[in-house]
Amino acid sequence: MGIKARFKTFATRPELKELRFTLNMIKKSPLSLIGMGIVLFFALIAIFAPVIAPPLPGRDPYIIPREGFSRTPKPPSENHIFGLAQGGYDIFYGCIWGTRTAFYVGLTVIVCATLIGIVLGSISGYYGGIIDEVLMRITDVFFALPGLILAMAFAVAFGPSLDSVIKALILVWWPTYARLVRSEVLRIKNLEYVEAAKASGCSDFRVIVRHILPNAIFPILVVASLDTGSVVLEAATLSFLGIGAPYGYADWGQMVSFSRNWIVGLPGNPYAYWYTFVIPGIFIFMFVLGWSLLGDAFRDILDPMIRRR
Amino acid sequence: MGLGAYIARRLLLFIPVLIGVTILIFLISMSFTPEQRAVLYARSPKQLRSLRQLAQKYHLYDPIHIQYINWLNNVLHGNLGWSITANMPVSQAIIEFFPATLELVLYSAPFIYIVGTRLGIISAVKRDTAIDHGTRVLAIIGWALPTFWSAILLLSVFYGHLDLFPPGRLGEAATRYVQSPKFTRYTGLNTIDALLNGEIWIFLDALRHLVLPVTNLVIVTSALIMRVMRSSMLETLSKAYITMARAKGLDEKEVINKHARRNALIPVITVTGSLFATMICGLVVTESVFNYMGIGYWAAKAAVCLDIAAILGFSLFVAIVFVVTNLIVDVLYAFLDPRIRLG
Amino acid sequence: MAQILYTFTLLKNKRVNSKHIGKIREIRMIWKSKSAITKMQALAIVIIIVVAAIAAYYLTRPTPTLIKNPDTIITTVYGPPSTLDPAFAYDGIVQIMNVYETLIFFDKEHIDRFRPVLATEVPTIENGLISPDGLTYIFPIRKGVKFHNGNPLTPEDVEYSFERMMVCDPDGGPVWMLLQPLLDRYCTRDENGNIAVSAEEIDKAVESNATHVIFHLKKPYPAFLQILSLSVGVILDKEWCIEQGCWPGTWNNWTEYNNPSTPPLDTKMMGTGPFKFEKWDRSAGEFIIVRNEDYWGEPAKVKRVVWKFIPEWSTKIMMFLKGDIDIIADVPKAYIQQLEGVEGIVCFKDLPLLAIITMVFNFNISSTSPYIGSGKLDGEGIPPNFFADKYVRLGFAYSFPYEEYIQEAYLGEAKRIATCIPDNIPFYNPEQEMYSLNLTKAEECFRKAFNGELWEKGFKVTVPYGIGMDYEEETRIALEMLAENLREVNPKFQLIIQGVELTTYEAQLYGEDPSPVPLNAAAMWWADFADPDNFFSGFMGSAGMYSWNMYFSTPYIDELLANGSSTLDPEVRREVYYELQRIYHDEVLGIPLVQLIGRWYQRDWIKGWYFRPVWEEVVLYSELEKGY
């Protein structure tokens, strides 16, 4: 064929057509665009954190600089546009650098937990029988592990740090995904197209990866996208108990924890310390919203059952 | 295979799971030195001088397997050890703390489920409309709120300002009555016990104290159910048999309820199952803020203080809860989707 | 919904025609079809109605009287007790002190004057009840007193109570306070855990006859009467104790009852006091005592006292503001503004507590310590004998911003002290010199340290603190301020602050010998009794809690301590304790941070409270009343 003809066949290939359709759908769905926008916005903040909130020279940039040691929070002012949390920690700095922490913690935990969950869940659901039993019992064991204990043990074994917390959270989170994947695989594996794939001689691996998983993944996306936010909050609880990031680390969860005893405000002015919890709270909320809209967008746009309704 | 045999087999396999959990926790607790674990037995800071003696007294220097076997032996005789954080035997602590959590979960779970699924269905049916967007954003606000945040805010508005719904499980007068010999304890749940004793005012008082914690839990957790329901519903609604049902002329409401919903529920059940089990194992923050001290509060304290006996006992309890919940969920799968074989 | 309302308005106006009938049919179909959406709306309405009904019920009830729970005092002071057994209880004794009674007790707010309680007279040298050599104390016992179970109080009960304390003597318990004066020992067991006293010794220490109880001390002990006013001096009912499985009072196998793992009286109380023990609900966090109607003295003014243990600060303060709690006392300094200027609340300020916090230097750090870096004087660590060099200690002492620290960490509400005793303890030297912030002097001293090497090479030391410990935030602030100032003196001086898991920290600090912790950043002590010996022995003696594994104690110090605590002569004692204070200051054994100042908040309808500096949490609730 001539070049022109080749190009024309290329342009009408089904994959490209699908891509164009996908892009079209994205354009048409305002919420997906908003979701992507929000995540992109936070990504930019994370990348440009050193520029937006310059760290003090010679200090660890993840430790929030303190302005004095005031035991009470101070309201927003010229030098500190979001105000100071208890202990004189700059809320603006904490929120900006906290974006990096949020991405790091949230994504690491979710991606690892999901991967482990997918692998174990799909093997369990597909093969059934003894493998299923054993894997599910192992999942039960991990389900039953109280996350707090695990986190404490890691903190003692590896030293209290964000990394210990991440490891502990991964171990606590993956069972939910495993069971979710397994239930989806159970449902799908008996459908006709799977049988067709098997009949046409696909290896098990191929069947799982190319046929079952792409259809099983959508509930995971939904749960995972919400979970990125909850991971940040969980890590915060652990930091609060002293097993996570060190005190004064730039982490939204820590900033929110700082606000815990100030929510009641002052007599006569219940919102005196609004900035301590509203501002970090907004960051967390927008982050969670962005990821969940994104998760929905993936599903709405990519799930072949839903896209062309 | 038959349902009965399936359940029996699952319950048998339960035991290796329990052993697995306890061994794991025991190993984890060994990462603390005997002196560190002895700190817990010190009843006051001035006692810390005698850490070595304390460690010896409580056999903390024995080899791991000896300590484990001792513990296992005790458990099989019904003795789960002594919880230092609770100042009572572990088994008693579980019995005393659990009813509060159970009461909270029993009253919140239905609301979370109903609110979550209804919102999810509406969202799916009215996809891409303002209602859909609005509901989703609202649910996510609730989810992203740190639990203590919404809890304290609720308390400060409805108690701090309006003095309507106070913290705690019961008011002063009701507490005095409940502790007196005139009142018999059956279950430990104030609402049910009040009804069984025929004291309606205590029942109302207990409900009054439940309003805020339940509201808090609903706000903070329904987003999860809502989103899974929505996604699952969307998938189901695009299936061929739904189009068929519509073509047959069935009323849209019937299509949704009779045909779509049942099949959309499977992933929702999984998630609800884990959510329920997680909640039963304690709602630390809600319990803390509302003075509704239940098992979550105790377990968190035990974890932070390295109360090993309590941690082990609690883990056994959690293991039982999760296994039972998973069993129920798996049985429900088969019930909802006959294509899934239990084999 | 809208359709239904529309239909109702139509029906009201009776303008019904075929169009409307069609609409009505539609509506009936909607109701019948039980659609998902209408059902949800209905459910939502039902829930809202139920909640609104409950709310309305409570809102429209007649406003309750201003004072909530008028016959009950609800207090949140000083957390749940760890045990109710007086032989074990060290902190958390306020409940014990309201149900049990002692022979004598502090006279109101005085800590050096007493009034008789279960005794009829307070022994003094003048009335002959204390022997001239200070070794014998005689107490006439009150008649007609009954325990809460009806058993009469006899001198035999008194003898039993004290002997039982000494027989039990659990590890880390309070009994050492009795053993010191009566047996001149800290413990009934030696370092290997073997019994080191004889039955005879204990038996002879306390004797009784039909009307009196006699104590025989091994040496004159100035604080003996104070000790008898504390929880180690409460009187138990011998019969009842034996019923509960305590030591039967005989000597043939008394060692079996020594150092039990579980306190036999852990959850039970049987006293003579103005209140009876009713209930301790450990899961709900409530401790309740009720008025003893058969009390031998003036009855309590309120019917019931309830301790509530509320974990969440915001909830606690809300309940206090609403009047559901009557007393809060442990308000962290950071939150006092949340209680400023509120109607109905009374605040007692500037209460001088008998409590101090200091930093303690470790002269001989364990060589395997994770906190000393390289372990050498090379700028990347410190050698184990770092603080043994006096110039280093001086440098640190001059680098600490004492005044600023109190402003920042305590909002100004704390006092400076020169050494390790508070200023309201007898024999405090008001003229004792103190160090102040002086970075020039600090530099001078550091330059002389380690023959000038330190200034060249610098140092790097990690100072840990326990995460979740008391005064965690204040400690952090102190360390950060110190670190900043050290850096200013010489940029090569690095002090790293590290939060360590609490049990690890406590084990390292108090359980290991030598301790790996270079600097104890928050050595805190609340007085057991108002006597200087209580502080000095803990901070300076070779067996002191804060000094035993820090290696700075000397035989001379021990000698002074022994002399000071075995005489009643105020001149001798003054000499001894002034000398000890001088040594502490001149040798810079530590950096004294603060003496604590307390606050007490209560609702204005509580009357009768007063402040007593020692064991200030021991409020006798029989003296409080609730009303206007």
Descriptive terms for the model:
heterotrimer, B: 343 residues, mainly alpha, MetI-like fold, 15 helices, C: 628 residues, alpha+beta, 4-stranded mixed beta sheet
Short description:
By secondary structure, chain B is mostly helical. Chain B has 15 helices and two strands.
Q: How would you explain this protein's 3D organization?
A:
The complex is a heterotrimer of chains A (309), B (343) and C (628). By secondary structure, chain A is an all-alpha fold. Chain A is built from 13 helices and no strands. Chain A has a single domain (26-54, 61-302), classed as MetI-like (MetI-like fold), CATH 1.10.3720. In chain A, 72% of the residues lie in helices and 0% in strands. The radius of gyration of chain A is 24 Å and the shape is globular. Chain A starts with a helix and ends with a helix. Chain B is an all-alpha fold and 343 residues long. Chain B has a single domain (88-342), classed as MetI-like fold, CATH 1.10.3720. Chain B has a two-stranded antiparallel sheet with strand order 1-2. In chain C, strands 10, 11, 12, 15 and 16 form a five-stranded antiparallel beta sheet that branches. Chain C has a four-stranded mixed beta sheet with strand order 1-9-8-7. Chain C starts with a helix and ends with a strand. Chain C is of the alpha+beta class and 628 residues long. Chain C has 19 helices and 18 strands. Chains A and B meet through helix 6, helix 7, helix 8, helix 10 and helix 12 of A and helix 1, helix 6, helix 7, helix 10 and helix 12 of B.
CATH homology-level superfamily of chain A: MetI-like
Cα Rg of chain C: 31 Å
What is the CATH-assigned architecture of chain A? Orthogonal Bundle
Q: Average the pLDDT over all residues of chain C and give the rounded result.
A: 88
Q: Given this structure, which CATH class of chain A is correct? A: Mainly Alpha
State the helical fraction of chain A: over 70%
Strand content of chain C: 15-25%
Mind summarizing the main beta sheet of chain C?
5 strands, antiparallel
Q: Structurally, how many domains make up the residues of chain A?
A: 1
* Tertiary shape of chain A: globular
**Broad structural category of chain A:** mainly alpha
Question: What string gives the helices and strands of chain A in order?
Answer: HHHHHHHHHHHHH
Q: Characterize the largest beta sheet of chain A: strand count, sense, and whether it forms a barrel.
A: none
